[in-house]
Each structure stands twice: as C-alpha cells, then as structure tokens.
Amino acid sequence: MSSSMQELLAQSSFDSLREGSIIPGVITEIRQNEVVVDIGGKSEGVISAAEFVDLGELQIGSTIDVFLEKLEDRQGNPLLSYDKAQQKKNWENILQKCTEGSIVAGRVRAKVKGGLIVSIGVDSFLPASHVDIQPPKNLDQYVGQTYDFKVLKINLDRKNIVLSRRELIEEQRTAKRRALLDRIAPGQVVRGTVKNITDFGAFIDLDGMDGLLHITDMSWGRVSHPSEVLKQGEEVDVMVIEVNREKERVSLGLKQTKKNPWDEIDRKFPVNAKVRGKVVNLVPYGAFVEIDEGVEGLVHVSEMSWTKRIAKPSDILKVGDEVEAVVLGINKDEQKISLGMRQLEPNPWDMVRHNYPVGAHVRGKVRNITTYGAFVELEEGIDGMVHVSDMSWTRKVNHPSEVLKKGDEVDAIVLDVDVQQQRISLGMKQLADDPWTNIDRYFRIGDVVQGTVTKITSFGAFVELKDHIDGLVHISQITEERVEKVKDVLKPGQVVSARVIKIDRDERRIGLSIKAANYSADELAAEVASYDHIKDRGDLMNLGAIIDEATNK
Q1: Residue 272 belongs to a domain with what CATH number?
Q2: How confident is the model at residue 245 (pLDDT cuts 50, 70, 90)?
Q3: What 8-state DSSP symbol labels residue 352?
Q4: Percent of the chain topping pLDDT 90
Q5: What pLDDT sits at residue 453?
Q6: Which range is least confidently modeled, 49-53, 82-86, 283-287, 532-536?
Q7: In what order do the strands lie in the sheet with 45-48?
Q8: Total of domains in the chain
Q9: CA dihedral (304, 307, 308, 311) positive or negative
Q10: Is 449 in the same domain as 543?
Q11: For the purposes of burial, counting CB atoms within 10 Å of the CB of 5, is it exposed (0-12), middle (13-18) or buried (19 or more)?
C-alpha cells in the first residue's frame, strides 16, 4: 500500500474521532505520574495517574475507554480523560440502581470548597455538614477512604448527586440507641469512650448514645475538675446508675465500680491511730489531708500545735505536703474524719499544773494587751492573763495600758490554772498586801495628807496619796468659794494638802477636803457631817458617781 494510501486511512480514522465521545485507546506507556494512550490520532494523549484507582492493575498494550475532550490542545496533542469516560458510562448505570434515599458505597476522591468529592461510579458531592455527626475541622483525613453513603438528591439536568454520611450514622445510632435502652439497666457495668469533658462531668459514648458521668460520681475522693480523672478518647468501665427511657438519658458512675473506702473506715482508721497523708486543700480553719484514695480528714487549725499561735494553716503547711497525724474522731454518715497533728507531740499543758502551782511567784513579758487585761508569756506558747481588776489594790484601772505596755517584764502570782481551757490566771496586786485591810494604819479621819492630783472630773478630783491609794476631793471641798469648774482650780500633777474627812471600807474610797486642811476640830466635824449628807442624798453629787464618771471618761 502506498504511503499516500496510509495517510488517507489515518486521515479518515482521525476524522471519525469526535470530541465529547468515548473512544477506545491503547496503553503504550505507564509512567510514575501519567499513562500514555494511543487513540490512532496524529499523536498520543496523556492521562494523569490520579484518574486511576491503581496503576498496578494497568498493562501496556491493553485497551481502555477514554473520553476525548479535545482533538488537539495547544501542543497539538489530544486531551483525554479516563475518569470522564467512566463517569459517562456509569451515569446511565447509576440512575438505574440509585434513587434518592438509597445507600451506596463510594470512595472519597478529593477535598473541594464546602465538602468532598465522592466517586460512586460518578462524581458526587458530600457537603462538609454531612460528613459526620460533628462537622470535622479537617476534611483531608477522609480523602482516599471508602464509606457507605445515603443519596440525598439527584439532579438529572445537572448530572449532580448529593450524598450524606451523617444521616446514615444517625440512623444507625438511633437503632443502636433503642437497642441499648432496651437492654441497659442500673447496676450494670458497661464500657464506653470519653467523648467530651465539661466543668461538671464527662459524656461517655456507649456506642449508640451518650451517658453523663457527673463529677461527683467520678471518685470517692476530691475532684476539682473532670480532666484530672479522664482524658478525651480513653476507654472506661462505668456503672449505670439511672436509665430514663422516655428522655433517653443515662446517668453513669465511675466510683461505683470501686469499693467505697468509707464502708470500712473505722476498721482501717480507728480513733487514736497514727496516719500519714498528703495535704490536698487549705482553708482558713484547717487543712484537708488525703489519708487514702477517696478519704480526707480535717486537721483543724486548733489541732496543729499545743503552743504555737497559728493564724492560718498556710503559715505552716502547703498543698502537697506529706504530714503525719492522729485520728481524733470519725463520722461515717457524714464521711468526716477529724485529725490532729499536735497529738504526736507531748502536751506542754500537762506539765503546767506542776510548773505553775497556785500561789507561785512568776515572771514574764507582756505579749498582748486587751481591754480587760494583759497576756504575759511565761514560756513559749504558754501565757497567763492578768485581769484589769488584779492589777492594783488601790487604783481604779480602767484600761491595762494605764499600768502596762507590750514588752514590759512583770512579776505576778498564779491565782488559778485551768488545764482543760488552757488558761492561767495571774495577779499583780497579790504580790503586795491589800492596804485596805489595815487602812487605819495608813489614814484616820482628821489626818492632813499630801498627794498629787491625777484625774479631774466635773464633780471633783482624784488625788494619789502614799502607797498608791487614791482619795477624792469633791467640788464642794476645794475652796470656801463656790467652784464652777474643777479644772479652773486644780490641774493634774499639782501637789495638794488635804484633810481625810471620810473612809469608806466597803467602797474602798477615801474622801478628802482641801479647804478643811486648816480647820479646827469643830469645823472639821461639821464638814464631815455635810460630806455624809452629800453621800446620803444619793444624787449625782456622791462619791460613787464621781468615780464612775471618771471611769467612763
């Protein structure tokens, strides 16, 4: 056959190649990323390897159907597609067996905007919202995977099929959920996967439905956050606590799969037993110590030391510390254990009665002053208290700060010891005799005495005499003239001479008169009588009122 004849034949076969049709082609070469196909045209076409499921199944010399998109591209080569030929062939095929609502198998080919392209013989679209129950953040993981899908929509004009994987999963879950709700019962132990963790608990996927494991049912012990106990994705055995079939809810418990440590608590931790544990929480009133899994005891701040003044537990402890303690008491119903740390040390108060017997003379430093007295430190952690009324036999002490200040060294006598209440009562005045028992030795009516003005009130003035005994000059006893204001005539610190005109043993008070200092015996008798009259009238002018007024000031 002449060469011109061959060309004519080639020309005629080339002319029969119609764009948009499916034609046979022979594989002439298989490269790494492409397959070369001869369709009997002027030149060979190239098809991307991505259009074939498995290059290993192809053989050189075998014939395949290809779709002719263009006879010649810019380089003069035919533009071919194996995939489109399959699609075209499959489209008629698919329509016969595939209807809306039917289930088909397909392979995810590629990720596109808004979803995935799935090949079910023809390319279909799987929207991202229909990939799974929870729309996945990353769609790349699905490419290349094969799944079952539900056909949502078929658009014949546009040759467009929309699929859903989510609806299929939901239907399967509904069926599984019904089956699970039918067979599940409280008390059963089931296996599940931690789906997600919240502040109040965790949702456990029981393969068919989610059950709620509340934070309070995770452990017999303290749980601050569920993430301390569980990790997302881990498998756990949980007990079914409650099933609500109408609301399709299941409550689960993790601690219920373990023995309650409180059941045998008194056997394991009897009172007076020595225990060891870890500080798990500090509060203003004490420290919680975990002495066993799920078992915490409270060491009250008052049980931390016999003698140290602990303002708050965090001064001596921190979370995570290992400590030893003694069991003081157990309340099984309320799941409470009282612990003590100081019981591990000897109680210095046991020796107090021996070291500080009543009547003993002691010396110490003023540690603190209150409105009613002063605390004196006798040894580290052991204080005695001098009440304001035990500071002086003779002075009316309104506030301890009039006599003492913090840091002063003081001598005192032990008046009382209460080991139970951990109190020692001290007295300073008891170091000396009470001058009022023998007041006649010091003062008699009619005596002229000297003293210093210590306090001024609206009704008179206090004058300190010898041995710290206070006397009182009534306003009427200052001068012969009428006195409007005491402070106009007398000043604190002023030394005055006065006459004793009244001694009141019961009230422990001495009445003085400055104006009577130079009186004769008769004048003095008259003044004493008038002074008694002042007292007997019972009005504000009496001695008691003056002292009370001074006290209030």
Answers
A1: 2.40.50.140
A2: confident
A3: H
A4: 3
A5: 92
A6: 532-536
A7: 45-48, 34-38, 22-30, 63-70, 79-81
A8: 6
A9: positive
A10: yes
A11: exposed
Q: pLDDT, tens digit, for every residue of 23-63?
A: 899 988 888 888 899 988 788 888 888 888 787 788 888 88
Residue pair 32/49 in contact by the 8 Å Cβ criterion: yes
Both 422 and 452 in one domain: the answer is no
Q: Which residue has the tokens 């995977």?
A: 145
Q: Where is the domain boundary, 233, 257, 281?
A: 257
Residues 16, 57, single domain; the answer is yes
Name the token pair of 499: 């006459």
Identify whether 530 is part of a domain: yes
Boundaries of domain holding 310? 265-344
330 torsion bin: left (phi>0), alpha (psi -120 to 50), beta (else):
beta
Q: How far, rounded to the nearest angstrom, does the alpha carbon of residue 101 sit from its chain's CA centroid?
A: 53
Read off the tokens for 249: 């809810």
**Nearest C-alpha neighbor of 372 from the set 387, 384, 385:** 387
Choice between 526 and 113, residue whose per-residue pLDDT is larger? 113
The mean predicted confidence, pLDDT, of the chain is 81
178, part of any domain: no
452, 523: one domain: yes
Please give the structure tokens belonging to residue 458: 């609206």
Find the distance separating the first CA and the last CA of the chain, reported in whole Å.
144
For residues 528 and 512, is the Cβ–Cβ distance under 8 A? no
State residue 6's pLDDT score.
47
- Is there a single domain that holds both residue 103 and residue 131? yes
Does a structural domain hold residue 416?
Answer: yes
Q: With contact defined as beta carbons under 8 Å apart, do 146 and 107 qualify?
A: yes
DSSP secondary structure letters along 126-142: EEGGGSSSSPPS--GGG
| Minimum mean pLDDT range among 16-20, 52-56, 192-196 | 16-20
Give pLDDT tens digits for 362-376. 888 898 889 889 998
Separation between Cα atoms, residue 390 and residue 377, nearest integer Å: 17
**339 and 353 fall within a common domain:** no
* Domain stops at, among 431, 464, 485: 431
Token readout for 278 is 């870890």
Residues 412, 377 share a domain: yes
Indicate whether this model's pTM tops 0.70. Answer: no
In a domain, 483, yes or no: yes
Where residue 80 falls (left for φ over 0; alpha for ψ -120 to 50; beta otherwise) is beta
Sign of CA dihedral 14, 15, 16, 19: positive
pLDDT for position 239:
85
Q: Looking at residue 32, what DSSP letter applies?
A: S
* 490 close to 455: Cβ distance less than 8 angstroms: no
> Which two three-digit tokens encode residue 413?
């006598």
Residues 156, 227 share a domain: no
Encode 438-467: b = buried (16+ Cβ within 10 Å), e = exposed: ebeebbeeeeebebebebbbebbbbbbbee
